Amino acid sequence: MAADTDATLSSGFRLLHAAASAQASRTDALFLAMLLLCGTVAIVLLVLVVWFSLRYRRGRQVDRTPPREMKGIEVAWTVTPLLIFFGVFGWAARDYVTMADPPADALPVSVVARQWMWKLQHRNGRREINELHVPLGEPVVVTMTSQDVIHSFFIPAFRLKQDVLPGRYTRLWFTATQLGEFPLFCSEYCGSEHSQMTGRVVVLSPSDYGRWLASGPSEPGMAQYGFALFRQLGCSGCHDPRSTIHAPLLEGLYGRTVHLQDGRSLVADANYLRDSILVPAKDVVAGFAPVMPSFAGQVSEEDLQALIAYIQSTHARDATP
Amino acid sequence: MTTDALPASYLEDGMSLRSWLTTTDHKRIAILYALSITAFFFVGGAAATIIRMELATPAGDLVSNDAYNKLFTAHGVIMVWLFLIPSIPSVLGNFLLPLMLGARDLAFPRLNLLSWYLYLAGGLITLEALLLGGVDTGWTFYTPYSTMFSNTYVVLTLVGVFVTGFSSILTGLNFIVTIHTLRAPAMGWFKLPLFAWAMYATSLILVLATPVLAITTLLVAAERLFQIGIFDPAYGGDPLLFQHLFWFYSHPAVYIMVLPAMGVVSEIIPCFARRPVFGYDTMAYAILAIASVGFLVWGHHMFVSGQSLAASMTFSLLSFLVAIPSAIKVFNWTATLYKGSIRFDAPMLYALGFVGLFTIGGLTGLFLASLSLDVHLTDTYFVVAHFHYIMVGGSVMAYFGGLHFWWPKATGRMYPEVWARIAAVLVFIGFNLTFFPQFILGVEGMPRRYHAYPPQFQVLNLFSSTGAGVLAIGYLMPLVYFAWSMGRGKAAGDNPFGAQGLEWQARSPPPTHNFDAPPVVPARVYDYQADEPLPEAAP
Amino acid sequence: MSSATLAHPSVDEKQEPGTGKLGMWVFLASELLFFGGLFVAYLYGRTHFPGGWAEASRRTDVLLGTVNTAVLLTSSAAVALAVACEEDAQARRWTARLLSLTAALGIVFLLLKCLEWHDEWREHLVPGPDFALHAAGAQQFFALYFLMTGLHGVHMICGIAALGLLARGRSRGRAWAGARELEVAALYWHFVDAVWIFLYPLLYLVDRHG
Amino acid sequence: MAEECAASTRFARERRTIAWAWIALLLLMLTSLGSAYAKLGPWNMVAGLVIAGIKAGIVAWLFMRLREAGVLIRLAAVAGLGAWCILLVLSGVDYATRTLTPTDVQRPQQLPPAHGAASQPR
């Protein structure tokens, strides 16, 4: 079984998504076998129904003496599917068992899923949000738990998914066999932004992976985390340039002087941002109504820093949507 | 239309609203059910239309993500509990069972009326929850999202589902006792029409599985209101316990939806092929086998949910076993056509459509029963396509087939044959165009319940959305021409299709007490002769 | 073929002898599944948190539980006797009294139950923020305790109402209070008693020696 | 005359079985109570359930007259029990063989705000 079998019917059209993991090629083999098996059964039945319908339609002169009762055929089409099913069950179960126990030397990655983002952490503490860098050809075992509801870590290109439950760990392991970037989805319904809880798995060559692992800061991009919170807490609902609600734009706000409703003006520094989040009515910007709800008690210190880091990172790029 | 010597038909036997709303005549209750589930069908259909319009474009720009989540939940809840489960048993079953058994009415006529009122109450509660703001947990109500993280009208919807479930338990109870005690004396068990067998097996599941749904909704409501900690891991609960209890009901529930459809098709195909059904005994045993083995397989919904390896293997093996009786039935329907004298009236088109689409639905079920494939395919559009092929391609097609087949019996008038055939073909084409692309989307990994999706899935989603348009038209046509036929349809004789079965020995539409003279139970059931000419009553 | 005599179930199902009893038995099968779901949840909790559940179960009032079980077993015997009396010509006069006795015992059971609930409420054993016990699973036990006994209580109320009505109907010789309706109501009552027979050891006798 | 005395002897027999059944039930209840005070470990639950099973059996067999009931009524009783056992056994297979690696639930700092939804619809 070549490592990356692709079932491509014609050059352009790809029936099966790129198979990029060892498990994927085995699953694809079973999928194709089942497709052929069930396809033939469906076609045979279709042909029979159409042929009988045409040949024995009313008004057509044809021999219609009722056939004698054939018990044999009924036994045949009960036992044959039974045997085939046992075969298919065994094949699928064998693959499922190999999926269930990861090799001992697999590279550990721990994942914490929370409502609408994936937080991943590598062996040496290197953390990522919604992204997973893995080496080519080495087994990786992902140990996952959830902070709130059930999510599901799904990588179509690897043909693998595993639900992530609160209160316990679940595992998923794979060996990437193709370089490149593959989409990551959450496939168990988990609330409003279930469809935004996506990410990507980046497969690097072992040397690149080693360099990447060592180089990056151990902290995840605070701005990255802030941006996820900015959306999840609903700030983007008003402060996003595309939003219909009249709210001050935050792009490049950090360090700018802001003119307030009561005539005062001040430089937008970290404290101003922090107060505006916790006590929005204190410094209302000129020309805006004080409608922003207070987030006091709903954001922790760590969240505040992340939000502020995000706003700092937006430094005055033009607010194109 | 009825000669004045004979008593009036059940339709004209008192036309006041009060007589309709306090009737205990199983035929009128069937009509009440028909009207109410048609209304809910179009509400659920509207939700489906908006969903398909939203999914025509990758970005989630038609409705907000919360609105989308509430839409697909409304579509699921309404279609499953307020349309599919009551559709064939409560409409066709209520109308036909006493007629087929040669009885005057069901065993408990007043309980039957109570069932309808409970169904209506449950439906209205669910609708109220929808209008107040909807629920966004999906029709599966998975915890801990439904118990702790959804701030929508979950408890109100669960009350609606509880009441509707109780209504279907009572209908099941009524059918079981009727089939056991009120059969015509000469009608032994193996002279029962297969539709009656299907009603019996469905009622067994209704009575034995629905209570577990009732207790599950109670537990979710209690957990949501009083934090009882059964499903909440913080207090030591287990979200998988909910899934076990929920799917213990919900998998047999899909057999509640498809078994009656099999019963209808087993009545239509022999009639229009003029051949006795192939292997009647095997078909009856297959119906019972589906109902009983159907209770053993629910774990195949939980292969990736964190269920133990041994349990997943057990459920996978049992799921393959439950596929055997369904396969046998499909082979028997096909064999029934052999050496027949086949006519392609609308009911037959729907029945043949059912056989084709149910075969694809069943075969793709085998993909999902194999463990390693399910790891890739579950929770994707492959599953959505699979269960729509069985529920819409199967049950709804058969329900429409049954409506057309027994319409002359219920109203005494013929439906317009040409329009009906056009509608049947349109539904078949629209259905395939809508749901076959979703199989490919599933294989490519598009997850379920996504408000916005990556652009590479758009082409197939566009196919699916256009197909949904065609399907919607196909479903609207019968509404129009059935209404037209009530007024100006041609008078149908007592047996326009030359069908076997006691219900065809009654007048069309039958009097309130069903039979003027006691029906004659034939020696052999489905005693059709392919070579004898058909009575020319039909157009 | 003999022309099939048409089974004529008149408006109420008096005509067919077996339908009422069979209907009730099918209904009891569904009720068994209804309580069955709760028992599965109970078994999950008890197998996963034996310690917490044992400690919580010790806080239930075993005396009241045992007395209640005795009351319910007696009421079940009483209604069985009532059904037997109804079938015997001389003893028929006892039926109405025995039915009232059964309903009365049911009410006694409910009163003792409310007493017990009140005590537990006072001892902060009702799951909530100020729940007294802190062992793992204890709150879960009491949540299921209230759910099971509450659901059983609701079924008791329905049973008492039915038996009360039948007793009154029987004493006034009403047509609808005949032997068949009585037997069906008795079946329902015995089922509710059988559920309590299982609730008693599961809720009160988890671990008394600890 | 004959059928009256037959009826009265039947009633007498009926009355006797009910009385004996009642006594047996009370005794079983007391044994169940006693077994709870004996230190049997996991066997406590088994004993409790077995005794309850016997009591429920007496109520069903004698009081609910399964003894004289036709096969249909017995089938209904067995069907209910059978369906419940399926639920218990098959979900038991999962719980018995599940290698659970529990972790404490890492509560997020706070529940996600309901986007300012004033009332919390239940």
Shape of chain A: elongated
Structural class call of chain B reads: mainly alpha
* Rg calculated over all Cα atoms of chain B: 23 Å
Tell me roughly what share of residues is in helical segments of chain B: 55-70%
Radius of gyration of chain A: 29 Å
Here the CATH topology of the largest domain in chain A equals: Immunoglobulin-like
The CATH homologous superfamily of chain B:
Cytochrome c oxidase-like, subunit I domain
Question: According to CATH, what is the class of chain B?
Answer: Mainly Alpha
Helix count, DSSP H or I runs of 4 or more residues of chain B: 15
Main sheet record of chain B: none
CATH architecture assignment of the largest domain in chain A: Sandwich
How far is the N terminus from the C terminus of chain B? 19 Å
CATH architecture of chain B: Up-down Bundle
What's the pLDDT, averaged over the residues of chain B?
92
Largest interface: A-B, 76 and 88 residues
Q: Any idea what the CATH superfamily of the largest domain in chain A is called? A: Cupredoxins -  blue copper proteins
Give an account of the 3D structure.
The complex is a heterotetramer of chains A (321), B (539), C (210) and D (122). Chain A has helices at 22-55, 71-100, 206-215, 222-232, 235-239, 270-278, 301-313, and strands at residues 107-114, 117-121, 127-129, 131-135, 139-146, 151-155, 160-164, 170-175, 180-186, 199-204, 257-259, 265-267. Chain A is an alpha+beta fold. The longest helix of chain A has 34 residues, at 22-55. In chain A, 34% of the residues are buried. Mean pLDDT of chain A is 83; it is low at 1-13 and 316-321. With 539 residues, chain B is an all-alpha fold. Chain B has a single domain (24-505), classed as Up-down Bundle (Cytochrome C Oxidase, Chain A). Helices cover 67% and strands 0% of the residues of chain B. Chain B has helices at residues 17-21, 26-54, 65-101, 109-132, 145-149, 154-181, 194-226, 239-273, 280-293, 309-337, 346-369, 371-377, 381-411, 417-444, 458-488. Chain B is globular, with a radius of gyration of 23 Å. In chain C, 75% of the residues lie in helices and 0% in strands. Chain C is mostly helical and 210 residues long. Chains in contact: A-B, A-D, B-C, B-D, C-D. Chains B and C meet through helix 4, helix 6, helix 7 and helix 8 of B and helix 1 and helix 5 of C.
